[in-house]
Fold:
Amino acid sequence: MATKGILPLLLTFLGVTAALCSDPITSDIPGAKDNPLLKRYEGSIIFQYSQKEFDEYALALGKALNPSGTDKKIEKEQTVEGRVTRISYVAPNGRSTLEVFRNYENELKAKGFQTLFTGSKEELGYEFQRRYADIYSQVFGAADFNPRFLAAKLSQPAGDVYAAVFVTGYRYGTTADLKLEPNQTVVQVDIVETKSMEEKMVNVTAEKMASSIQDTGRVALYGIYFDFNKSDVKPESAATLEQIAKLLRSDTAMKLLVTGHTDNVGSFESNRTLSERRAQAVVGELVTHYNISNERLFPFGVSFAAPAASNDTEEGRAKNRRVELVRM
Structure:
């Protein structure tokens, strides 16, 4: 019993000792870089960096609310999707949050960004900084000295760009190997470059459909397209529909369940209805335009009951939005 009690304390001691002995961050962390759309405040260093080629981001367009009085954490938010770059800077000591913030504000204006929401101090509501509490220990979680925030949008033909800049003064808390002075300015820059998700799920040939059905009894198809919350089959689905028809013509005894699958956005019942309508629409296309007998096709809506991936990411949700053919 005594040994079991000593072990956790020893591990804690070793962890603290390692943290104290680690070199402090005095330059950009490896692999980090400024986003080409927005340069840094001169003399700042990057202490946290991440980039995802396609993800969603909740852009704050209003003040933070006290969660004890409402289910909402932010008065107004907009979810945007695309390449998400998140960069955390520490500014040179002695620079005020106002000076640093004005530099970013001027830079965004010079680049043609339109301000969507801005605020400072009390205008940001209840502990606005907690939006960034998960970034690098407790640097932002308790950084509430003269906070300032700006959300902006740049419209361009290649896709809109959204920027969120949060500038605040560090007050207290654990900072690991980042050495900060009281009220030293820290900056969080989040940039979302909207774009279409790369379509990596190519159209499947009739031969590959047959092989998958032979091996597993089913095949998942991602080349049949619908608008959001709609069940009309889009014209760009023709190539995949032609391959399904070819599959059925090559095996005249084959009968298929045509199953519609969705992600988990919305209720289960609304998605069940939507997935059923989409499956029916696919059957209708095959019967009407490809002369496949209605008696060989059976539409069925699955909703999000059989996910192919996690619904926690946009990439996973995209994989779950599919049509499957199941041999009967």
